[in-house]
Amino acid sequence: MSDLRYVAIGDSFTEGVGDERDDGIPRGWADLVAQGWATSRGEPIEYANLAIRGKLAWPVVDGQLESALALRPTHLSFNGGGNDMLRPGTKIARIVDAYVKVVRRCREEGVTPILLAGADPSGGLPMSRLIRSRGDELSDAVIARLRREEDIVWANNWTDAELRDPTFWSPDRLHMNTRGHHRVAARVLGALGADAPESWWVSPDQAAAHLGTREYYRAHVAPWVRRRVTGRSSGDGRAAKIPEWVTIRP
C-alpha cells in the first residue's frame, strides 16, 4: 500500500455531481485531486471517497468520518454546510462545530485534515443575496475558529470570484460542471504543494446551460421543494462511491 492515503468525505460537491462520466457516475474534484496528486508525485496513491449527495454537515460527520478514519488515511478532506445553508433556521455555529470535530478527530488519529469551502453558486439561484451572505458568514466563521490550528490544508473556493461565472456551473445552477470541478481540484493540489496542469485553472469555456426561468423552476427547483416537504434527500438509498481503497497511478 502507498504511503499516501487520501480519503474524501462530504456531500454532492465532494461526490462530484455535475461532472458525470460517460457511464453516468460522477467524477468531480476529489477524483481529480487523487489523479493529479499521484501524477505530480510520480508515485501511486491510495484513494477512497465516502461522500453522498444531499447530506447536511452533521450527517456527513456522523455517517462518514469514523468509517473514513478506520481506513487509516494520511489525509482526509471535508466540506459540508452547502445543503444546510439552503434551509431556513440553520445555525452557522452548528455547522462550524462539524468542522471542528473533523479537525479534532483527525488530530487524534494523526491524519492531516484538508478543509474546503465550496464555490459560490448564489449568482444563479433564487434568494442569491441571502445565500451569499450566509456563505460569507460560514466561510469567515470556520477560518476564525480554526485559523490557529497548525497543519490544516485550506482550499477556499468561496472567495474565487471567477468561479461564480455561469460557465463553471451545471444546468441546475447548484453543482459545478466539469470545468468548475477542475478549477477546484487545481486549488486543492496547490494547497497540498502539488502541481496541477495549468489547463485545470484555465480550461476552455463550457457553454452555460441557460434554461428559461419557467423551465428551470420546473426541472430543478420544484423537485428540491418536494424533497424538503416530504423529508426526503437526493442521497436516500445511495452508498459511498468509493468505500474502500483504490490505487491511483500516475
TrEMBL record:
InterPro entries: GDSL_Rv0518-like, SGNH_hydro, SGNH_hydro_sf. SUPFAM superfamilies: SGNH hydrolase. It comes from the Bacteria. Residues 8-182 form the SGNH hydrolase-type esterase domain. Pfam families: Lipase_GDSL_2 (PF13472). This is Lysophospholipase L1-like esterase. It comes from Microbacterium amylolyticum.
